[in-house]
Amino acid sequence: MFSKEKITLAYTVEKCMKCGLQKKRKFSDGDVLFAEVSKCNSCDGKSIIEKIFGETLEQ
Amino acid sequence: MTLMDFTNFDIDQLFGMKDDSNPFMMLIWILPIIIFIFYGQRIQLYVTSGEIKKGIKKLDEFREESRNELITYVNKNLKPTNNPEKKFDQFLDYFTIMPVDMDPNGIVEKVQHTVRSREDYTREHVKSIFSDIDDIELSKVQTLLEIASSLQMIHKIINHMFLTAKKQNNYPLILPLQMILPFIMEQAEAMKEAIPAFKRGQPVGDGIGPMVVGKMMLNNPKDTISFQTSLAKTNFENRNLFLIKAEGPGSTVGRPADALQTIVSQNKIDAVIMIDAALKMEGEESASIARGFGAAIGGIGTEKFHIEEVATQNQIPIFSIVIKQSVKEAITLMTKEIADQADNVRSQVYEMIKENTIEGHSVVVIGVGNTVGVPQ
């Protein structure tokens, strides 16, 4: 009867091309898949955006 | 065990028709029957009308909301010199008259011409409003315009059907509307919820095909092979791969049929593999993967027709991999479940290539779908 409000949050997953380390963060404007974003924290390799997706939460 | 005897009930007693029965009770029994005989349909019409009215009110809200989102987006991001509201309101009212199909010969070319003319017209006019708009923003505005225009059209048609039935006091006329309304509402809600993803340039569920092929294209030189369509050539286990997808990260589906036609006219192709999102059936799991034969591509049907025609003329088998999802999932921000399947689909594409071709063969791999947020 009282349905909970659903909100979808967008996330970006960065993946290091060298060591495969993944980092999940909130989506920020301008993010597109396969874009080189930063250097990997653990091996200094290149990180690219591997996935962009939404997760739905009930409030 | 004792069985109940149903044969000895008294009908008079059951309906209270004995001499000593209450006439008031008799009236309570008979009056509704009389009312329902003469006014049954009208009562049903009122009950159903209430439900449909709620749906139409929602559709009107969606229409208004999508229009406002479009105008706000344009004013905020593209800084137009003149107020574009009037111009956009004109676009929203544009209609497309489909070609006559009494003689179906050549109908596909006619439909394609009509649809492409509309797209070209909108593109050129949006360009003329914003002199320095780039192609990505242009494709976003075009998609938002398409959503707002579709919601406007849906509202108009449903409202027309409802008012006609009401005007005629015709209950049977309102029945088909009552039956299709839940499906229409599902589509309209999905369209309304698609707006934020397109505004922010985020990948949608339908973009899984371009996402898979886009990653296969990485680190390979790319060319524009047909309008808004990208091609990359690569090698996999001594097979030549021609990778095609719509040019991202703008919101477009490209023209894969034209691209395939060009490749086939210049090369001997041994197989075509298409990757696309497909509507899941009720009960099917979202993001499940299925393999099959035939051209996996949606839309109005013209692209599919041309792909099939090229494949048939050149005796090229078409294999397809689809990722199941609902209407809403297909046009809203890609879900985690769908995004997580990208690697699996990619490995299945390579597996399919190995299974169906031999060394030295050439294969065209097409990532079908809207490529918003998915470059190559």
Description:
The complex is a heterodimer of chains A (59) and B (376). With 59 residues, chain A is mainly beta. Chain A has one domain. Helix content of chain A is 0%, strand content 56%. Chain A has strands at 6-16, 22-26, 36-39, 46-58. Chain A has a four-stranded antiparallel β-sheet, with no helix packed on it. In chain A, strand 3 and strand 4 form a beta hairpin. Chain A starts with 5 loop residues before the first strand and ends with a strand. Chain B has 376 residues and is α/β, with parallel strands linked by helices. Chain B folds into two domains: 42-200; 205-367, Rossmann fold (3-Layer(aba) Sandwich). Helices cover 57% and strands 13% of the residues of chain B. Chain B has helices spanning 11-15, 23-77, 85-92, 107-129, 135-168, 171-200, 208-217, 256-266, 302-313, 327-331, 336-340, 342-356; strands at residues 222-226, 229-236, 239-246, 271-279, 289-293, 318-325, 362-367. Chain B has a seven-stranded mixed β-sheet with strand order 1-2-3-7-4-6-5. In chain B, a hairpin with a 2-residue loop joins strand 2 and strand 3 (239-246). In chain B, helix 4 (107-129) packs across helix 5 and helix 7 packs across helix 12 (342-356). Chain B starts with 10 loop residues before the first helix and ends in a 9-residue tail after the last strand. The mean pLDDT of chain B is 91. At the A-B interface, strand 1 and strand 4 of A face helix 7 and helix 11 of B.
